[in-house]
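Re: the 484-residue chain
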Amino acid sequence: MMFHRLLSRSLLIVALLPLTALGAGFPQLGTLAEDGFRISAEARLLGAGGQPEEILASLSPTRSLSPASVTKVYTAAAALDRFGPQHRFTTRLVSTAEPGAEGVLDGDLILDGGGDPALTSEDLWRLVQRLHQAGVREIAGRLEVSQWRFGPVECITTDRCQARSRVDNAYSALLSSAGVNFGSWCVNVAPAAVAGQPAALTSCDSKEPLPGFDNQVETQPADSGTRLSATRVTQQAGDVMQVSGQISTNAYPRDLYRASADPAGQTADLLLAMLERAGIQVRGEAVTSTTQPPASARQLAAVDGEPLQEVLLRTLNYSNNFMADVLALNLANGARPGLEAGGAAIQAFASRIEGHGPLTLRSGSGLTTDNRTSASGANTLLAHMFEQPALFPSFVAGLQSPRNGVMRFIRKGPANFQNRVMLKTGTLNEPVRVRAVTGYFRTLSDRWGAFTVLVNGTDSTPYLNWTMVLERLSEDLARLIEAH
């Protein structure tokens, strides 16, 4: 009797302990909560084969926190729901004029930007080749790049607003329905043959120096090391890549990517250079516009982008902000939508998922700092996609296995975490640090599960990095995988 009374009392004490004291299935993650970090975390088994869903672990699962780039799983799900995995965005060259007998197009050539999130230089070159095949050899008018669907899109984050004049990264690329190469310039840096000489700078995408170069890179003797720094600045004549540092004579060439100040203008510059290289002269200037091509415009050439399932693979694997936000803008309603309209379209999609709960999205990428969701809500989204047999393979394919993922920092933790988990991460450092992760796992009995962990810092919490989160999460999740 005494034993039973002691056992009952112990169970009562356990029941009254706070979640962080118990860990509630996340004992290692719970230690971050004790350090003052705000956490929303949940792991659940998904219903399948007549087996119901089951919550395995939770820490404040309904608390709304910043998901950072975990937002992109919402964008991917909404895009698959709207367009389907095989949808392709089309970019066209059109004109109200027709090529004459000598191949002269007596009018303007218009690129009709189709909102392709993955339009590349290779696609532009195919367009030019198809235009040449159509018999065009000269444009009597202008080259016009039309971003009438959306763009230039108003910036609503500090990074993107600063990128209009100066930028030292590619992740804050500005947005347009006629953007190419993910809204970023690429410059190749190669050593000179002799130490002491300036390095060779060339455009990755054109024989022309696009953008302009300010070369301050010196070639150093073999094995001296390579240290490069690049900033894109916008001057009166256009974008200039300022590159400084050193490169060894025996070093491999390096590609540097920096966001352009005007994605549609970047497309116009590259397309003009390609037309000239293909032997198609443009008499007029290259311009951008927000005017929709006339209904009477005739299609001269077109290129279809990669299927949406391929676009999502890159968007999620590389957490590409340009691609995610362009996808969200394609989902938005109304003429010339902004980022918040794209976020609202994704919110509308999630609101139709039973049991999701509150969701605030101001963009499709998560670069906006006021996006909010909960671990329970994100897992509900994952459960919904798991139940869509025609969409789930394309959706889950965009997530990374820690063991084989392109992001090396996720290669942590026990073997069952490395091999039985597929995930998407999210990172922000301002105004507070955010480390977020969501995805699926497979238990040892081959049950599917979903998990989401959102960790947000405050002004008073200690430094937060990925090692602190992934080491704890990997241990907790591996234990759940092994227990089921």
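The mean pLDDT is 94.
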